[in-house]
Design a protein that fits this description.
223 residues; 9 helices
Length: 223
């Protein structure tokens, strides 16, 4: 079963790279969002540095939404989703494998590139460690929440806008504690542990809840 799961992860990563939903698109979108922020906020370097964690986290959230509408849609169109439901592998594990592939293609590159892009926002390189840690812990929760939205909208054509409407409110707690933990780095690390622990707890909760909820939503499409 583990071999089948890793084969599914590799398949989704290959498809994402071929259709333009891989790391490159997410990184370019992330870079554009970060690059336009100084024009919107002004040239005040102190202000940019103070808002950098929030801007980077918001950009990561929006970039994570890229490709989520295709998480199950392509399988639905090709009939592969029916095969997943008939297979011996639990559908919850299929959802988890596809979410992992999406995170590896988007969330992981964004997390590692965030400190580099943060230089445009006067983000101190010495504070990069806590920022990367919060993104590595928090972006999986964003992907898992997105998997629920993708499952709910899998039967809809052009459901990308509805998917964003569904996912954004659910992602607010992750965004709040992610920004709080990353922002604590700019104050000498004071107050970092508490929001980081809550962020980790949110990801662990979604790791359990999201596959079950997404699988139930996918099954409801066939009823």
């Amino acid at each position: 079963m583990m071999a089948a799961l890793w084969a599914l992860v590799r398949r989704d990563l290959t498809l994402a790279a071929r259709i333009g939903g891989g790391a490159e698109l997410g990184l370019v979108f992330f870079l554009i969002l970060v690059a336009i922020m100084p024009f919107a906020l002004g040239p005040d370097q102190v202000l940019l540095g103070r808002l950098a964690p929030a801007v980077l986290w918001l950009a990561a959230l929006l970039a994570t939404l890229l490709g989520l509408d295709r998480l199950f849609q392509a399988d639905e169109d090709e009939g592969a989703l029916d095969q997943f439901m008939l297979a011996d592998m639990p559908l919850e594990l299929v959802v988890l494998a596809k979410a992992l592939a999406h995170w590896l293609a988007t969330g992981l590159p964004l997390s590692l590139a965030a400190p580099l892009f943060g230089l445009m926002l006067n983000f101190e390189p010495a504070e990069a460690g806590p920022l990367v840690a919060t993104l590595l812990v928090g972006t999986p929760a964003l992907t898992l929440i997105g998997a629920i939205g993708a499952a709910l909208t899998v039967s809809l054509r052009r459901g990308g806008l509805l998917l964003s409407v569904l996912v954004m409110p659910l992602a607010v707690p992750v965004l709040i504690f992610g920004v709080a933990a990353a922002g604590a780095a700019t104050s000498g690390g004071r107050g970092f542990a508490e929001p980081f622990a809550i962020l980790l707890a949110l990801t662990l909760v979604m790791l359990v809840v999201a596959p079950v909820a997404a699988a139930a939503a996918l099954r409801s499409v066939r009823e």
